[in-house]
Write a structure and sequence with these properties.
mainly alpha
Amino acid sequence: MEVPNLGGSLIPIFTLMYIFIYLLGYLILFKNWDTKKKPDASSCLISLAHGTPAVILSIYANFLHTQTPNHHFASQNTPFQALVFDFSIAYFTIDTSHYLLFTPNDHLFIAHHIAVLYVFVTCRYVVGYGGFAILLLLVLAEVTSPLQNTWSLARYRKDEVAEAKRLYDGLSPYFYGVYMVVRGVLGPLLVCKMVVFYLNGGGDGVVPFWAWVSWMVVIVCALLLSMLWVSSLWLEFYKERSKSRKLS
């Protein structure tokens, strides 16, 4: 198996872009926020800068670009798909650095980000095939980004701003529900299709056994971590609702 030459990496350029956006949030947009919350708000900002564009770029790379690959899970990565991987690798690198610097005890998110980076880096730079399916997963992972980051920003300010509290309370059940459907239903369905594809030899000769098995293990673990996180949010939500009813 020969990994195709997809040109130079754009990771340095995208990394600088995310650093700029992060600093824009930290130093300007959120400069009056509480010192402990500014880093998290800046993380949300780069997440917004990554999420929806990543969805659009992935769909374009997989279905609309002139170099559209064969629509199967082990097709050779195209240069534009490689660009999308670089775009996302840069984001997850900066956001992982954020967590390591400011919230090193947030093991759930750190583990999730490292898992995602492993899949993206090996698919982009080691294997060179299978990007079609991985970018489909990226679409599912990032389609909830606007909801999640709006919810997160409201959460950071809910104790200080009444409007943020109302937004947080109103948005929470919808965000949790959509997130669970995407990560708990659609994601696993796609992963099951990928597993069946590879078990039937669909990737033989192009995607090594170690690669697709490790991808599946990592992706399943990432989905489980996501479900663990949103389940804890649901639990917190019901506890708060129960407490409010008792007080009223």
